[in-house]
Amino acid sequence: MSHQLLAGKRGIIFGALDEQSIAWKVAERCVEAGASITLTNAPVAMRMGKIQELGEKLNAQIIPADATSLEDLENLFTQSIEILGGKIDFVLHSIGMSVNVRKGKPYTDLNYEWMQKTMDISAISFHKVMQTGMKLDAISEWGSVIGLTYIAAQRIFPDYSEMAEAKSMLESIGRSFGYHYGIAKKVRVNTISQSPTVTTAGSGIKGFSDFFSYADKMSPLGNASADACADYCVVMFSDLTRMVTMQNLYHDGGFSNMGMSPALLEE
Length: 267
Ligand SMILES: NC(=O)c1ccc[n+]([C@@H]2O[C@H](COP(=O)([O-])OP(=O)(O)OC[C@H]3O[C@@H](n4cnc5c(N)ncnc54)[C@H](O)[C@@H]3O)[C@@H](O)[C@H]2O)c1
Known about the structure:
CATH topology: Rossmann fold
Bound molecules: nicotinamide-adenine-dinucleotide
Strand content: 5-15%
Distance between the termini: 40 Å
Structural class: alpha/beta
CATH architecture: 3-Layer(aba) Sandwich
Number of strands: 7
Radius of gyration: 18 Å
Strand order of the largest sheet: 3-2-1-4-5-6-7
Helix content: 40-55%
Largest sheet: 7 strands, parallel
């Protein structure tokens, strides 16, 4: 790709686990667009996933960080600035995990300790990332922070369970922190609400493949792929979207504005 929209920019990408991860595609696209990046994931993902492979391919250093640990996040920002040679221009938060879903607990019988862990990993970590970035003055003016979310924050998708609450909180943090970061440093903060996508986190939701094809038929353009999401992130990290902040941006082939689909009725 020759547009080089991110030439000279420095970024941190959270959440690349394997080649299906949305963050994996975003990392590839950002580097193609001229950025230099560091990659990060939870220490456990270093063993389970293939992030080392991606790091070698993109010539990007990997800095393990549990996104719920302020100490890890501080180290991540400090090291990234050192490695990349200056303040950070963009951050992708691509992190989600529901303990209750993973352990098969139904929504009407949640384990609340697990729920708190879910909120910490999937939503509060977004706040922690930005609070740490702000305290260290680690993000450049007009920098861009994006969190990935899902429409279950607004509408009911029963099998999404407690992740619906996590995504509502994530989007709210995007708006609230977007206000404060905008005033303080002209940093913009947005969430991108992505179509169902075949990944480790996505496929963990019960009935995912049926739901994937339902959403695909419901959306006039079909489901947005992880590659398309990566393109959108590049634009949102670029200077072409300087005045967009505090938004929840649907990237879903039109799904969010549909009421009824004749294609589905016919089935
Ligand atoms: N796949 C979908 O259908 C879909 C749709 C809309 C939004 N999203 C969102 O996109 C984001 C990325 O998910 P994905 O689908 O690429 O799946 P994925 O499983 O590839 O990515 C989730 C990542 O979260 C990381 N993670 C979990 N706990 C962590 C912690 N404590 N600290 C740091 N990282 C941690 C995992 O290691 C993994 O890399 C998530 O926020 C997800 O909710 C996914």
